[in-house]
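Quick one:
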Amino acid sequence: MAIKKYHAFNRMALKTQTPVWAKNMFRITFILTSAMAFFVAGTNLFSESVKYESVLVLKTLDAVIYGLSKMFGVEIREE
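Output:
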């Protein structure tokens, strides 16, 4: 019988393979935030300061989601 060990939010999670669902979560978020950032940067609906802050927030969200995808849901099976 295999014993399951879950490594989340620690150094062991960084050394193991990222699960497929976490990779997909990051990819979907990256595509959506990049599209929103592109729209915000190219529109004249907002002032330059609002554009700057909005793009920074969207790209910060990318970094957070990427970190979460690397640090969550990693399963290591030991037999």
